[in-house]
Predict the structure.
Amino acid sequence: MRDVDDWFDEAMEKIQSMSPEETVESGVAAGYFDPNVTKQPSCFVKMDSSNIEAYTPKYAVDLIVPYIPKDKVIWAPFSRPEHHFANYLRSLGYTVHNTHFDPKTGVGDDFLTYEPDFDFDVIVDNPPFKGKAKYVERAFQHGKPFALFLPFNSFGDNGIPKLFMANDAEPQLLIPDRRTQFENQPKKGISFKTVYICHGVLPKQIVFRKLHPSKD
């Protein structure tokens, strides 16, 4: 007979890999939720398997800049050259290696399997929203500091905290005072707050900072 805690952890890890919308859809299909109650308001951008990439604005990149010394080489593993974790950080004087993978076409360098042929000091980027824990796990495997821009609620699930415990690592959170509006979305309105989940980057475990959207 399976241990209840093991079953719960497995279920939570599965939920962790879903977007908020997919979690609700699965609950409705199983009869756990009333779709009339749980349906996301139309004012919010829908983040699901058809919309897994959200382009981070400059003002959200600015949040992490004070904590990355200019002499550190950055790897942005989810960014094309035109994305702000690549071109904007370069414009600020950083050396940045950027790689990107398109899951629909299979073109590019998949962070989960790719072994970089360049030296780097820190990983900084915004991973796809689907399958968040596996990107944190892979970041740990590289043995370097990292700052990953992820939904705040992903830190409340079992997957990511367990990774910090397994790696005997102190979690660090950089928390903005408001939600980030991503650039490539058809409308304004994000239903969740996004934060930097870090390892070996911040001067203390929790840092609060103000966003300045007017900079963009």
Observations:
- The helical segments are 4-16, 20-29, 35-38, 58-64, 84-91, 132-141, 159-166.
